[in-house]
TrEMBL record:
Name of the protein in its database record: Malectin
Signal peptide (UniProt feature, chain positions): 1-27
Gene Ontology cellular component list: endoplasmic reticulum membrane
Family named by the database record: Belongs to the malectin family.
Source organism: Eptatretus burgeri (Inshore hagfish)
């Protein structure tokens, strides 16, 4: 797939340059933001949780978080770290987030019947181990993802997108499977809105970095850039540079990715569905791992307090007082 992308991309640029010479700036922008897909116009709703208005990769325009000042905490803790596996324009999306020590959620109006895909963007920027932040996600009251553990899915500070296909028909909202098919999956009454709920469990708080809804299937959602260790694509060179130093820590993640690919081959699934297939597999492996553990862990989310202000305040004083001292002596 990566080979294919690198062949296709120059072609796209050539076509763009030939077709719209006056729009050269646009072509250049799109090439820089990743793949040009005209996706921006098909996005019905997009939110930069815990942050402000932001235009990300593929021209998607995220609105400011409507929950600002209402529930939970808007955190930019992640801005101190680069996010692996995210397009440059999407870095900020993954670096800001909303978390809350109670369940919280968003509602989006949908234009009516049809197939949709919800894209949920996550990156673990705080915890350095799995089984720290674990939570569920519900759509209109139905379990869509159970026990999401972002760290165990993607590792630290790495983009992880969950794709949730669903469709609206005959006054009901149906959860889709990974192809977006909705044969007789779970359904709930539909009142014109999609309700996305991040459910607090016994582990650390639920959170969300950014999300959007498109009209279409998961195949229509552009994939994340390839993992640095497996990439041959010119688009991921930035990513290479950024995390070159962390490469040694990546052993576990690589293993997990290989697992995912094996399953993909077995199921004869297309590469483009890999992100959707992964969560299911992961949940299976998580369960297995938990089963092997000797006893239940006692989760104590408050053991690691969020004293993130202490350090900046100390630094500020450390700079301020000597400066004042020098100024007074002049
Ligand atoms: C601490 O902050 C992180 C990063 O914003 C957040 O994910 C986590 O839920 C917070 N935990 C607690 C216990 O406050």
């Amino acid at each position: 797939m990566f080979v294919a992308t690198s062949l296709v991309l120059p072609g796209q640029i050539v076509v763009l340059v030939l077709c719209c010479l006056p729009g050269l700036g646009r072509a250049a922008r799109e090439a820089h933001g990743g793949l040009s897909s005209g996706l921006g116009s098909r996005v019905l709703w997009a939110v930069n949780a815990g942050g402000g208005v932001h235009v990300g990769a593929h021209g998607i325009r995220y609105r400011a978080d409507p929950l600002n000042g209402k529930i939970g905490v808007a955190s930019d803790y992640g801005t101190r770290l680069p996010i692996m596996r995210a397009w440059p324009l999407d870095q900020l999306l993954y670096q800001t987030e909303r978390w809350s020590d109670h369940s919280f959620g968003y509602s989006a109006s949908l234009p009516g019947e049809g197939a949709y895909t919800l894209v949920l963007k996550f990156a673990e920027v705080y915890f350095l181990h799995s089984q720290a932040k674990v939570f569920d996600i519900r759509l209109n009251g139905m379990d869509a993802i159970s026990n999401l553990d972002i760290f165990s899915r993607a590792g630290p500070s790495t983009a992880h997108d969950e794709l949730l296909p669903f469709s609206v028909s005959g006054g009901r909202l149906f959860l889709g499977d990974r192809e977006g098919d909705v044969p007789d999956g779970p359904s709930a009454a539909f009142n014109g809105k999609l309700h996305i709920e991040f459910v607090k469990g016994e582990y650390d708080n639920p959170k969300i970095c950014a999300m959007y809804i498109i009209r279409g299937l998961p195949q229509d959602v552009p994939p994340l850039p390839p993992l640095p260790s497996t990439n041959e694509s010119p688009q991921s060179r930035d990513g290479d540079k950024r995390i070159a130093d962390d490469d040694e820590d990546e052993g576990e993640d690589e293993e997990e990715v290989e697992d995912e690919e094996v399953v993909e081959e077995e199921g004869n699934k297309k590469e483009s569905t890999r992100q959707i297939a992964a969560p299911r597999l992961k949940r299976v492996t998580e369960t297995t791992r938990r089963g092997v553990e000797s006893g239940p862990r006692v989760p104590d989310p408050y053991a690691s307090d969020n004293g993130s202000l202490t350090f900046p305040v100390l630094v500020a004083f450390g700079v301020f007082i000597p400066t004042l001292f020098c100024l007074c002596r002049l």
